Amino acid sequence: MYVAVKGGEAAIDNAHRLLADRRRGDRSVPALTLDQITEQFALGVDRVMSEGSLYDRRLAALAIKQARGDLIEAIFLVRAYRTTLPRFGYSEPVDTGAMLIERRISACFKDLPGGQLLGPTFDYTHRLLDEELDGDPQIAIGERRESLTDAAARVADILGGEGLVEEDVDPAGQSAPGDINHTPSEFPMSRAMRLQSLSRGDEGFLLALGYSTQRGYGRSHPFAGEIRIGEVEMEIIVPELGFAVPLGRIQVTECQMVNQFKGSAKAPPQFTRGYGLVFGQSERKAMAMSLCDRAMRAEELGEDVVAPPQDQEFVISHCDNVQATGFVEHLKLPHYVDFQAELGLVRTMRAEYAQRESTFQTDLQEAAE
Amino acid sequence: MRNESTALDGGFSAPVQDAQAVFRAVMDAMARPATIVEIRPPVTPPAPLPPIIGAIASTLLDADTPIWLDPTLGQSPEVGEWLVFHTGASFTDQPGEASFALIGDGSAFPDLDTFAQGTQEYPDRSATLVIAIEAFDGGTPLCLRGPGILDRATIAPRGLPKDFAEQWEENTQRFPRGVDLVLATGDSLVCLPRTARLIAREMEV
Amino acid sequence: MQTHEEIALRRSRMSVLARARTSRLQELWAALDLAPSYQALRGPECGLITLQGRIGGGGEAFNFGEATVTRASVRLEDGSVGHAVALGRDMDKARIAALVDAVCRKPEMATLVDARMIAPLQQELDEADETLRQLTAATRVDFFTMVRGED
């Protein structure tokens, strides 16, 4: 039986009006501007850009404002907006080696060319709440020092040649990488498509999975080979011009995780690598991404698939927080008919159970007599 | 310097409204197979690309839809450049790899089964053929039935291959796989989706 | 065909225009007082591009997200065609950048525009980069080893 139910329209309209009212809050408090959000909630903006999979700071800030600071709701808004735009094409692959660096560290090499550049990091802060920020204190501008001229070499290139670290393979003449935007998920999935999923995947989910690999679920003994944050210039080939046109810069975080690997039938003992590349300053996410990337390479490297982070279908199918929130939150929608059906079923089963119980009791009684 | 004049002119002047109008026309025609839908093409592409096909291309093609051109259209560099500039689509010389095939000479093109047919799991991964024909009458009558057709509909497109009716019958038998067609001439178009089945070839007599 | 030098010049001009603040573009463009009449061939229109990275930094390409872009193509009355594409959703930036590209198809105009518009923008952008480098350099770790053991 299907029962059509109507009647929520006025309630929904008023709920939306109330939402807008609460979003604005106390009218004596000035409204947030998007500039304030992009400048002062920059890392929240970066997370919305990266998981919304759309690099546009102002749109991400607008989404955060509209979502009342609920970042997953903001990510949902950005994803929805993104589907309304035509796609002009694909950029040329970014050269992270040519990055204008804002932060760059390695936990493997102390004296790497280009140096350890801490940049604007929370590391080494004492995690004490700063009550001065309750007001609007004068903040000194950053210290300066003569800039460096030596290029910041990639860690992969430092050990390269000796064969101790696996090298990047760029198969010449490869076809275009698959795109999860218009290819339904099929497993096993190429590493390129897995990385696309991870790059927009939920930070919390990937963080927990990455953490689990450190605790022994698909142990891969990671080192932070290099983390770099900075601006890279993007380019796109414009057919009517016949050359690659510079589009401007975006900020990205790149993580090269280096993992001990004892070798297998497929590969000699060497360090293997997991890779992370994320919009904005999103270091935790890039690290978690590279741990998950490495864990999901288990099969490729001849390791046993024994833990959830190594199971690509498990990781990829559950890392998208827009999909996840959609399916979990849809439980709020009316399931009146389904529930009535289940209720009827449980009543029947209970009646049968009661019947059996009473028969059993009668049998016992008769046996006792 | 390349000749930048013909390739860049003649696109939609109001891209959103123009594309919506053409999309609506194609959608209506696809929903009512064998019905003639008229639309004044809002583009002026270089010859030999018929304006109506240029309009359909500008509406439906983008960077994610590889296109195949028949020799009539493919021999014109201006047509290729115009399509690239106004749609962003790329070309393939393999009919089986194309999402769309633009056919300037409807009387001679590769058999329908050489184009992408889709798969049982993903029948949408098939090609749509946009074909220039001579007229919607005077050819072999095709009597069709299927979704979107009340009882039956007859159309007699002129300027299609001689064995078109047989090919079309085979195409509809591959359902859910198979190609869909947009036939166009002048300011008119007719769609033949793979669900439009031929009822009686004896109608030809 | 354009020579390699012409393409390099055009590319570096496009790079500067794409990175510049729109308000600065508007100011400097207005100051040139060219205001050529033109025909819009395409756009300005906003869309997406898919950004690609490389696995491991140097390997196979993969898509890592999308970005908003705006593009424009214009033709001046003398027939010169200009194109622009830039990250973001700024229609006026794309329009001005396409006009600059078109105007600069004439070498004598290119010299003027480069001197009065591109060079100052380039200098401002370079200064901003240098500031960022210096701020970052101040956070560089200078390791030193403590003297240990007996002399």
UniProtKB/TrEMBL annotation, chain A:
Write out the entry's keywords from A to Z: Lyase
State a single Pfam family of this protein: PhnI
What is a GO molecular function of this protein? lyase activity
InterPro entries in UniProt: PhnI
Q: Name one GO biological process term.
A: organic phosphonate metabolic process
Q: What is this protein called?
A: Carbon-phosphorus lyase complex subunit PhnI
Automatic annotation (TrEMBL), chain B:
Q: Does the keyword NAD apply?
A: no
Q: Domain of life of the organism in this record? A: Bacteria
Per UniProt, the keywords (alphabetical) are: Lyase
Pfam families tied to this protein: PhnH
Q: Which GO terms fall under molecular function for this chain's record?
A: lyase activity
Annotated InterPro entries: PhnH-like_sp (IPR038058), Phosphonate_metab_PhnH (IPR008772)
Q: Does the keyword Transferase apply?
A: no
One biological process term in Gene Ontology: organic phosphonate metabolic process
- The protein's name: Phosphonate C-P lyase system protein PhnH
Organism lineage: Bacteria, Pseudomonadati, Pseudomonadota, Alphaproteobacteria, Hyphomicrobiales
Gene behind this chain? Answer: phnH
Automatic annotation (TrEMBL), chain C:
Does the keyword Oxidoreductase belong to this entry? no
Gene Ontology terms: biological process: organic phosphonate metabolic process; organic phosphonate transport
Q: Where is the signal peptide?
A: none
> Transmembrane residues, as ranges?
none
Tell me yes or no: is Acyltransferase among this UniProt entry's keywords.
no
Q: Which domain of life is it from?
A: Bacteria
Q: Which keywords describe this protein according to UniProt?
A: Lyase
A molecular function GO annotation: lyase activity
Extract the Pfam families matched here: PhnG
Q: Which NCBIfam families match?
A: PhnG_redo
Could you identify this protein by its name? Phosphonate C-P lyase system protein PhnG
Q: Which gene encodes it?
A: phnG
